[in-house]
């Protein structure tokens, strides 16, 4: 604490530091009131504290001493850079808490969705789910990775066009891709059950229809809450159901 | 060089953007409520009686577009359950090409005929009318791809297909003046609509029947996959040649 106070005292005394403060204020620029309020006390201090004879000597002395402001600032800068570096996941934009929230929203189609969860477009989850579908289809002996990616891409483009036409505010490609990708999660359940037993036949058809309905209900719920299109949920659910029905065809046949 | 490339890129992007912005022209045609769509679907099967004054056609594109996609899905499902193989193409491409080709092509042709016969109908209304007429096709094909009786198909073809055709014909008649013009327009539309349903059933149904025959007999012949675009004659020729070669060896 005492070191700090001394530092403060010296800081306000020298001319160099006052100009430095002025420079800093100019570079910030935006908050002029703050700069002015910071300027006014410093302008008073030299008049109050520093006698004219002492100033140049103390100023020269300060510069030559090692534990001085430029060095300390450099050290501080180095430490700040290391501390202020954002964590890797934050830099990549992967937020596990949000991913988990969105997954829970998809898994429970009856729960009303929060409109703000789709604000950031996150494609990590959808990529993982597409890979999971491809992998489970592979386990069933079908190599359909190309079909999965192709259907996803065409479906995203088509849904993006349709949603832009139907909603008052537009949507971005990323948002559409993110929502459709997240709601692909129940389809992973369908394709993994296709590994264990064949889905052709009445029970398989009923199960596929149930999963397709689940996916499209979740997707339409998120779209209607994000785009404020109440009353049109069925109109959005139907094209989603057609899209997820294509995935179900891949899993069944 | 890079500023030039930037300029060219920017120009192309703005051109693409203005092209995309033209999609906003279609925006009013997608402004519907689920109740309206349901009402129009049911109305498309009910022929109107009043043909003395022009009947109202909803100029809406959401319902017809969804019906076309539904028809594509039904065709795909039918092809998959019957193990159809398509050479020189894909199942998806064939289904989409057939359905969209019918909807857009026949609508344009009928619009052209309507222009010649002086009928009061716009292109969007024609697209909408024909699109909703596909509802009967969807119902018929959905039922008859899963329940395989020829007589059932013919009943559905006449009743369901006929009702939707009658509705379209009545609306067109109400908007056209003159007997010859009415005859030309409505005859063409009825013929195309009914024949399309017949084509969809038989082009995609042949293979299903083939599999049923092999499964029903007690002595099962080896499973044969019938390729769709090899005609039956050459298939028979190929089979007999293979058999003769096998016998001679």
Automatic annotation (TrEMBL), chain A:
Listed InterPro entries: Yip1/4-like, Yip1_dom
Ranges in a coiled coil: none
Record membrane topology: Multi-pass membrane protein
Location(s), subcellular: Golgi apparatus membrane; Membrane
Chief localisation class: Golgi
Annotated ranges, domain Yip1: 108-249
Transmembrane segments: 147-167, 179-199, 205-223, 235-252
Pfam hit, one: Yip1
Biological processes per GO annotation: endoplasmic reticulum to Golgi vesicle-mediated transport; vesicle fusion with Golgi apparatus
A GO-annotated cellular component: trans-Golgi network
Superkingdom of source: Eukaryota
Keyword terms, alphabetized: Membrane, Transmembrane, Transmembrane helix
Family according to the record: Belongs to the YIP1 family.
PANTHER family: GOLGI MEMBRANE PROTEIN YIP1 (PTHR21236), PROTEIN YIPF7 (PTHR21236:SF5)
Protein's recorded name: Protein YIPF
Species per Swiss-Prot/TrEMBL record: Cinclus mexicanus (American dipper)
Source taxonomy: Eukaryota, Metazoa, Chordata, Craniata, Vertebrata
Underlying gene: Yipf7
Automatic annotation (TrEMBL), chain B:
One GO biological process term: cell differentiation
Main subcellular localisation: membrane
Any one GO cellular component localisation term in the record: plasma membrane
Membrane topology field: Multi-pass membrane protein
Cellular compartments annotated: Cell membrane; Cytoplasm; Golgi apparatus, cis-Golgi network membrane
InterPro entries named in the record: tRNA_Mod/Golgi_Maint
Keywords in alphabetical order: Cell membrane, Cytoplasm, Differentiation, Glycoprotein, Golgi apparatus, Membrane, Transmembrane, Transmembrane helix
Transmembrane segments: 61-79, 91-117, 129-148, 154-174, 183-204
Stated family: Belongs to the YIP1 family.
Role according to the record: Involved in the maintenance of the Golgi structure. May play a role in hematopoiesis.
Protein's recorded name: Protein YIPF3
Annotated source species: Cinclus mexicanus
